[in-house]
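Example record

The entry below shows one chain as it appears in the dataset: sequence first, then structure tokens.
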Amino acid sequence: MKGWRIIVVCILAVGLLSSASFAQEQTYTLRFNTVAGPEQPQTLAMNKFAEVVEELSAGKIKAKVFHSGQLGDQKTALLGVMRGTLEMTIDASPAWFADLCDYPEIGVLETPYVFKDLDHLYRVLIGPTGQKYWGELTKSGLRVLDIWYLGTRELNLTKKAGVVRRPEDLKGIKLRMPNVEAWLDVGRALGAKPTPLGFGEVYMALKTGTVDGQDNPLPTDYAAKFCEVTHYIVLSDHMIGFITPVINEKLWQSMPEKYRVYIKKAMEVARYYQNRMVLEQEAALLGKFVKDYGMEIIIPDKQAFMENVKKFYSQPRFDEKWGKGVYAKIQAIE
């Protein structure tokens, strides 16, 4: 009988020590920023991440979502994460990394027509090729946590711009692009005159005629109300848009391994949550744009755009940036 008492006392002691240990574990508050509005898919997915990671960690990891650029625009937030003054941002992608991290090679992952479809994108970015790029990026203080589908980017133009079916129709058209060189090259590759502008300025620029158009996935066009101040959707399908949630690398390395597992699992849940929303919206929005906003849907000569893009990126300067033949090699990955 005495032996059983000793065993029970030992079990209770271990339980108390485990509880005390859990209570002593550090609590992390992760500020998670985006320029997207409160109802855009990425913001809703960020909220889903926050909900799941808090549950998995028993409240030890709390993610606070800041939408509409409350903690900075795309560039400011990304620099903040690199420097450790902000924990996380969603508005990150290879074009930004190429510019801000002095890592030009990674820019090839965000070029027109480099991916055949969404499945191909995930095979590349989650597979060995993507892991090589993401691993190198950690040297800049950034840890890519996942890949979220943002939607297929289409040209979205004002009535003044007129109908666009081929690259030559874009000549002289002021097409808004994010203010980084890799994005400006996207505008040039399509045949337009790229005009750098922050996301929060795009609506008014379209309304006043400062720019003639922009390119974004259909759910972004709808959430940001660009459909109110534009007339044409040109189904160029020129880029499969994605965003890469990032966290400060030093912070990531300081976390217990199980917390990193919780974050990765919560990211995966949020990815599927976002991807489904985006795909459903893409399926429904073309009809809504025509019916509710009187927009015109244009079916362009996509092959002409693909050939124009291929010619543009065949310039020697891109082989110098990315490595010889890398664009074509990524396209060929099965």
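Notes for this example: The CA atoms of residues 146 and 291 lie 36 Å apart. The longest strand covers residues 232-243.
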